[in-house]
Amino acid sequence: MLPTPDVAADYEKVYEPAEDSFLLLDCLEQEKDYINTHYSSSPLVVEIGTGSGIVTTFMHQSIVPNGLFITTDVNPHACLASKATSLKNGGTPYLDSIRSDLTTALRDNIVDILIFNPPYVPAEEVPGIPKSEDAYEWLDLALLGGSDGMVVTDRLLESLGTILSPNGVAYILFCARNKPQQVVENMEQKGWQCEHIMTRKAGWEVLSVYRFKLL
Amino acid sequence: MKFLTTNFVKCTSKACDSTTDNFPLQFNDCELIQEEQEFKPEFLLNILDRLDWSAVLKVAHDLGNDSLPQALPENVDPEDPDTLALLKDLHSLLLETNITQGEMKCRACEHVYYIKNSIPNFLLPPHLA
Ligand SMILES: C[S@@+](CC[C@H](N)C(=O)[O-])C[C@H]1O[C@@H](n2cnc3c(N)ncnc32)[C@H](O)[C@@H]1O
Ligand SMILES: [Zn+2]
User: Fold this and answer.
1) How many domains does chain B contain in total?
2) Is the Cβ–Cβ distance between A3 and A22 less than 8 Å?
3) Is residue A156 within 8 Å of residue A118, measured between CB atoms?
4) 3-state SS, residue A153
5) Given CB 3.0 to 4.6 Å as the disulfide criterion, which of A13, A24, A103, A206 pairs with A176?
6) Is A102 a pocket residue for ligand 1 (Cβ < 6 Å)?
7) pLDDT tens readout for residues A60-96
8) Min CA distance, A46 vs chain B (Å)?
């Protein structure tokens, strides 16, 4: 077992690592050999919706120590937390955190490894960005994913081809109510190779992680 | 925000994607600090492969640094003392220079994004998103 990072975040404003976060860590641990054989020693690793930063810190601590790391989040507290968590665990030569929607502020086709634990819970709608930095609604943004819980993830999947580098991969987490099998079928029709990495029951949710790569 | 990040980010407006002026952003009124990092020549070599050098030059100029060579040497050999000196300069520029406050303007749509507490904010106001 690789060590689980020690987190530095205020859980009133930033998503506290939970079963979904830990599933992602276990998946990335299992994918360590795949990642290290398919990518140069300094891949650009981008985590969308970094929250506390636990996943990115795990990546630089245990999976790709020489990687370049960018984290994004719409929540400014998460952007600060992900840098703080990284530093608390020894830091890494290059990590930056930017406040943005998905990867819309990144140049096209530069991301080698993309990771996303999205707001996946089905809800009436995706909440808007709170007006005040102190608002408690930041946590709603971490969870609520609109219709089928897929509104945010769908936007990402649609633009995946312009985000990833030619050899890039994306690791994305789903819950059963996102209908991941249907997502995979659609993506395969569009020429994506989709690999199931792991599924786990967590309370009443069934969570799974898939890997997407252009054929 | 580290200097290296300026080589990865662009204007988020979809309309600007059809221009070439959405990258690099233009940096104004920036406050900089140096944060020490261990110098690892091989790591820097890996980074050089990905750089858009003309964008590095533009942003360095915005921040008042015009001392960089117009082009990177063809064969970067870290054993060569001149190259090693260049790598050290680049290490300090790309990885140690942090923009803590400032503005980033898109040369196409002229939208201004702000950097606060070292975090650049690329969220567009609702009427532009
Ligand atoms: C389920 S949490 C995951 C947090 C962390 N990665 C983890 O695994 O513990 C989802 C995160 O996505 C962020 N988020 C929601 N919508 C986003 C968007 N459109 N772009 C970027 N981040 C977003 C939330 O603020 C939240 O931090
Ligand atoms: Zn623009």
Assistant:
1) 1
2) no
3) yes
4) helix
5) A206
6) yes
7) 999 999 999 999 999 999 999 999 999 999 999 999 9
8) 11
Is residue B127 situated within a structural domain?
A: no
| Residue B30: how many other CB atoms lie within 10 Å | 19
Cβ of A50 closer than 6 Å to ligand 1, yes or no, is yes
Say whether pTM exceeds 0.90: yes
Kindly determine whether residue A107 and residue B23, on different chains, have CB atoms separated by under 8 Å: yes
pLDDT of residue A13: 94
CATH class of A19-214: alpha beta
Backbone angles phi, psi at B79, to 5 degrees: -75, -25
- Per CB-CB distance under 8 Å, the chain A contacts of B38 are 93
**Residue B97: inside a domain:** yes
Whether residue B128 is contained in a domain is answered as no
- Look at residue B125 in the predicted model and tell me its pLDDT: 78
Q: Please answer yes or no on whether B40 and A93 come within 8 Å at the CB atom.
A: yes
Among A44, A80, A108, beta carbon nearest to B119? A80
Domain containing B90 equals 3-121
CATH of the domain at B11: 2.20.25.10
Mean pLDDT rounded to a whole number for chain B: 94
A17 lines ligand 1 (CB under 6 A): yes
Q: Does A65 touch chain B (CB under 8 A)?
A: no
